[in-house]
Amino acid sequence: MSSAPEQQPHQPDVAASDGDVPEQMRVRRDKRERLLERGMAPYAVTVPRTHSLAQAAALGEPLEAGDEPEGEEFVVSVTGRIVYQRNTGKLCFATLQEGPGTRLQVMLSLAEVGQDQLDAWKADVDLGDHVSVTGHVVRSRRGEVSVMATTWVMASKALRPLPTLHKDLSEETRVRQRYADLIVRQEARDMVRLRATVLRSIRSTLDGLGFVEVETPILNLSHGGAATPFTTHLNAFDIDMSLRAYTELWLKRAVVGGVDRVYEIGKVFRNEGVDSTHSPEFTELEFYEAYGDQFTAADRTRQIILDAAEATGRGTSLVDYRGREIDLSGEWRWLPICEGVGQALGEEVLPDETPDNVERLRRLAAAHEISLKPSWGAGEIVLELFEQLVEHTLLQPTFVCDYPESVRPLARAHRTTPGLVEAWDLIVGGVELAPSYSELVDPVVQRERLTAQAALAAGGDDEAMELDEDFLRALEYSAPPMGGTGMGVDRLIMLLTGTGIRETILFPHLKPQA
After folding, report:
1. Does residue 490 have a known ligand-binding role?
2. How does pLDDT run across 157-174, given as a tens digit for each residue?
3. What is the pTM of this model?
4. Where does Mg(2+) 2 bind (predicted)?
5. What's residue 466's pLDDT?
6. What top-level class would CATH report for the domain 23-162?
7. Residue 293 annotated as part of some ligand binding site
8. C-alpha angle 73/77/79, rounded to 5°?
9. How many CA atoms does the CB half-sphere of 312 hold within 13 Å?
10. pLDDT value at position 226?
C-alpha cells in the first residue's frame, strides 16, 4: 500500500483495550495499530488529489461501456469516503463520496495494483474510511464511469462504523449526531447548502436596495426584553451582562448616525422553551430604513421572502412542516389584531385599558381556559388571546397589524387610531415569521414607554425591557422617521423546506443525554 509514512513515533492505543468498546470498533482499532506498526499513517497529512469526483466523472462521460483509455489525460487521483465496497478474489469495488454527496466508483484489480496493495485494501479498508485512489478513468462493462486504480493510500481511518446507509436514522440521532446525518443522508447535505443560498439571497436583496451590513455587540449591559435573557459576567469590568435577544437598538443607533439603510444577520439568544418552532439560540435578520415605515418594511420583507424562494428553487407554492399548502403569490392579507381575536371569539374586542374592558377580556379568556398574569392589561390580554386562538389558524401570509401600545413599546403611535401603534407581525403557516414597526423616534415618548417597561422588569417580568439610557441619548440627537423589521432566518428556512426548526439548524441545542 502506498501510504504516507507516519510522522510521529508510534504510541500504544490505550483506549483499544477498553472492554466497553464495541467489537466492530475494536477490529478497526486493531487495523489502525497494524498500519502504525508497518510505518504507515492512518491519518495522513496530505494525499494525492488532482481531481474532484465530479471532475473525474466528467472525464469519463464521453466513454462507452468497456472503454479503458490509457492516455495521460485520463490519469487522476481522487479522494473520498468509502460508502460502499465489495471485495472479490482478484477485483475489489468501492464507491467514494465527497462534498455535496457526489459519488464515484473505484476498482482495484490484481493486475493493476499488485498482490500487496490488493491484500492491504482487503485487510485494512472499511466503510467510512477516507482514501486516495490514483488510476485511469474508465467506463466499466456495465457502463459505470469508474477509476481503475494503479495505487491507493489511506487518508483517514474510521474507527466508528457508519450508520446503516439503507436505513433511516431516527430524528433523535439525526440532530444529536449531525455529522453522521450529513454522511448518510442527502437531505441533510442539501439543507446546509440551501441555508447558505438563503443567506446569500437575503444579502443580495438588501445590498441591491442600498442597505449596509454591520455587526453589533452580542454582550449588552441591559437586556431588551422579549424573553428571559442569558446572563454572563465580564471579568475585566466586573459587571453582569446579557446576551442580546435582538439587534434593534444598536441598528437604530446606526441610523441616527447616518447609516440610513442598515441590516445585520446574526445570532440572538432567548432563554425560553425548545420545540418545533423555537430554539434558544437562533439566527435573526434585522433591517432598518430611514424615511420608511411599516408599509415600506412590509414591501421589503415580502421581496426578501420571494427572492429567497426563487433562489432556492422553491417557488411560491409551498408545503409547511404539517403538510399544509401555502401560496406566496398575490397580495398578502392585512388583519388588525383585535379584528382577528374578535372573529375567533364571535364578539367585538377592544384594546381600551379601562377597568371594565380589562375585566371583560379576562372573562373571555377564562371562558376559553386561557391563563393570564394578574398584572396584564388589555394589550397583553389581547395579545395572549391572539396567540392562543388565532395565530395557528393563519396559514396564508398575513400581516397582523394595529397592536395595542403596551405590547409594542418601540413602535410609534398609530397615525389615525389612539391607543394603537403602527406595527405588524407576519404570520405564515401559523408561525410568526417577522415583526415590524413604524419605529418610535420621539425620545420623550420613548423614555416614558421604556420607564414603564423598566418598572415591569423590576417587578420580575422577564419579557419587559430595561431602561437603556445610551439608546435614549442617541434618539435625542434626532432620528429620522424609520421603518424596521426582524425576521427569524431559521423560520424562513422552515417555511421554504417544510421542516421543523431543528432540521434547519446545523447543530441545534439538545438536552444532554443521561
Report:
1. no
2. 999 998 876 567 888 888
3. 0.90
4. 432
5. 82
6. mainly beta
7. no
8. 145
9. 30
10. 64
